[in-house]
Amino acid sequence: MSVLAFIQARVGSTRLPGKVLLDLHGKPVLERVIERVQSAKGIDGVIVVTTLESKDIPVVRLCAERGIRVFCGSENDVLDRFYQAAKILGPDHVVRITADCPVMDPRVIEKVVGQHLASGADYTSNTLVERYPDGEDVEIVGFGALERAWKEARLNSEREHVTPYIRNHPDLFTLSSVVSEEDHSSCRWTLDTARDYEFLQRIYGELGNQEEFFGMDSILDLLDRKPELRGLNSGIERNEGFAKSLREDSLSGKAD
User: Fold this and answer.
1) What digits encode the pLDDT tens for the residues 45-87?
2) Which of 104, 160, 238, 240 has its CA at 20 to 30 Å from residue 246's CA atom?
């Protein structure tokens, strides 16, 4: 049974253009994410899924230079991008990771994947109940569920964000949730603004030389010792991009 991780990446970003290629402690953000996902047990391969737009050629070039497989598809219909890549590569399950999560903890990936395979669910994530830090989001979906969502999802938000159709239809899909024992949902460890970038630079500056893939526990310990770091990017709305998509929702013109 094969499990492939798809890292969703593109250069375009309204609030922080080119964020996935920014330098973070000596390596591009995207490379940091790739390495962390590769180190997670239970992942059979990593593929970067980007767009066909010329502005994303640097993403393709980075992957080529580092021997990482890459698939180019629709810019806005990300569900189609994922499905077309999965259709070619043929995994039984697809893990969705976004390229703006450069402190993704490999052990969190392992936990979500392990529960998914053990439960036999169509979809498993640690986001159905938000208790993990923003930036530790992991989703895994069976190919059959991904294909059904691709065929049936109509709202633009369902297609841009890949999994909302599945999450919103527990009558059609079996859902499994990984919930953190402690609530760290107020922590923001993702990269979407200049303030986030400053925060992540400080985290890597403090921990990057000590551990190759420092995880959640190390970051939480650091924030306890240096609570002022929390203020660098506090007060930013979680999942702001998805909220914006919901406000702007309209029916997609995709045909079966």
Assistant:
1) 999 999 999 999 999 999 999 999 999 999 999 999 999 999 9
2) 104
Which of these, 98, 132, 94, lies nearest to 113 by C-alpha position? 94
Residue in the structure block whose two tokens are 């830090």: 133
Residues 6 or more apart whose Cβ sits within 8 Å of residue 138: 95, 96, 97, 104, 108, 109, 112, 113, 125, 126, 127, 178
Domain layout of the chain by residue ranges? 3-247
pTM beyond cutoff 0.85: yes
Average of per-residue pLDDT values in the chain = 94
Homologous superfamily (CATH) for 3-247: Spore Coat Polysaccharide Biosynthesis Protein SpsA; Chain A (3.90.550.10)
CB 105 within 8 Å of CB 220: no
Helix, strand, or coil (residue 51): strand
The predicted model gives 233-238 an average pLDDT of 84
The span from the CA of 250 to the CA of 230, in Å, is 37
Identify residue 162 by its one-letter amino acid code: V
Q: What is the largest CA-CA distance in the chain?
A: 54
- Interatomic CA distance for residues 134 and 52, integer angstroms: 28
What is the pLDDT at residue 256? Answer: 41
User: How many residues appear in the chain?
Assistant: 256
